[in-house]
Design brief:
alpha+beta; Alpha-Beta Plaits; 7 helices
């Protein structure tokens, strides 16, 4: 055994170094965010709670029942109930099992009419797994709850027009998709009338 090693063992140099590091960290600024009192900024494109986009003109969901989302979903967590009415396919129910979802956003990318979105909302933990099965009404409610929190009057999700794919390969509706107005058209018109009376 060398002399240096003996000295280190006798004077417990390694232990003293560890204690010094602990003492130094004790008085340094913490790096942990104190949730829920502090919240990290959620970046654009974060994949959180599922929602069906509400059409600002009709107030209904935009889903056309094409089944592309169910076909592309790797975890098979999307179930669509539809029926043909007057030569038109009508979506009766749209169900997502959020507990099975892997949040890949393939469904959002595949949707030709941008009817589905993984919102930036991440605070939706539940005690019962049944509460993580979102039906059509719940998915629309998720959209309403999410848009109420937004500061802007419009919303656009980056996965509606995924980067790295030639836009000419997208369906026409996807190419023409712009930001969604959060407020319904009737409300916007009403606000415009109220403002004109106020001046």
């Amino acid at each position: 055994m060398r002399f240096g090693e003996v000295v280190r063992k006798i004077f417990m140099i390694e232990i003293l170094k560890g204690l010094w590091l602990t003492l130094r960290m004790l008085f340094s600024k913490p790096v942990t965010i104190q949730y829920p009192f502090e919240r990290r900024k959620v970046h654009e494109g974060f994949r959180g709670r599922h929602a069906l986009v509400r059409d600002p003109f009709t107030g209904k969901d935009k889903c056309i029942g094409c089944m592309r989302c169910t076909t592309v979903c790797p975890s098979r967590c999307i179930h669509i109930k539809r029926e043909k009415t007057e030569n038109k396919m009508v979506v009766i129910d749209y169900i997502i099992e959020a507990s099975r979802c892997i949040y890949c956003a393939y469904c959002v990318e595949a949707c030709p009419v941008c009817a589905l979105v993984l919102t930036e909302d991440y605070e939706y933990s539940q005690y019962k797994i049944e509460n993580l099965v979102f039906d059509k009404e719940r998915l629309l409610k998720n959209w309403d709850e999410f848009t109420k929190k937004l500061e802007k009057d419009y919303y656009f999700n980056k996965f509606w027009q995924p980067p790295g794919i030639d836009p000419s390969r997208w369906p026409k509706t996807k190419r023409e998709q712009g930001p969604i107005q959060i407020k319904r058209v009737e409300e916007i018109k009403r606000e415009g009338i109220d403002e004109s009376h106020g001046h």
